[in-house]
Hints:
Helix content: 10-25%
Number of strands: 11
Radius of gyration: 21 Å
GO molecular function: DNA binding; serine-type endopeptidase activity
Order of helices and strands: HHHHHEEEEHEEEEEEE
Keywords: DNA-binding, Hydrolase, Protease, Transcription, Transcription regulation
GO cellular component, one term: membrane
CATH class of the largest domain: Mainly Beta
Domain HTH cro/C1-type: 7-62
Amino acid sequence: xxxxxxxxxxxxxxxxxxxxxxxxxxxxxxxxxxxxxxxxxxxxxxxxxxxxxxxxxxxxxxxxxxxxxxxxxxxxxxxxxxxxxxxxxxxxxxxxxxxxxxxxxxxxxxxxxxxxxxxxxxxxxxxxxxxxxxxxxxxxxxxxxxxxxxxxxxxxxxxxxxxxxxxxxxxxxxxxxxxxxxxxxxxxxxxxxxxxxxxxxxxxxxxxxxxxxxxxxxxxxxxxxxxxxx
Length: 230
């Protein structure tokens, strides 16, 4: 068994998903996938320290399969700060509502419809939100629909939208009320107009559309995504 397999085993034993482990150590779920698949050949430095702290593992056991499996707190790297997994009610997270956007063509503002209780909330690190100056009460999460934003966003991905940011910005990704439909698109500026563009390379199918007037109202900016796609 190599270190990648030991990492997977330890994560599963802790009943953590890749996304939960990634959130706890402040990396992306794709990074966890790379570690566990063997794409990453070596785990070291702060990442090694964080993984061992979260999973309660001794670094020597994780890397080489030698010695005791459990972490000895005194063996943490000098200057390292121990990382712990917290439940979703922990003060290190903000709970963000997962919603559906209810829009009307030509009408400013947005009404959000909470999803059922079992899937109606998600979490995001408080430190990440605070560092960027976002207001947590202005954040909502929605599920991506369709293929128009692949490979940036896939159907089923979760994106966090900052409802306080409705200022169009070149190359930014926004949730938009387009003729009464909630769409997630990238904005670009051309010939004096703003355009809704798709990241999908099939531009004949997903052609750009002008964003002008009451037919195209910005709901908020996409600031974070959760995805299992690499």
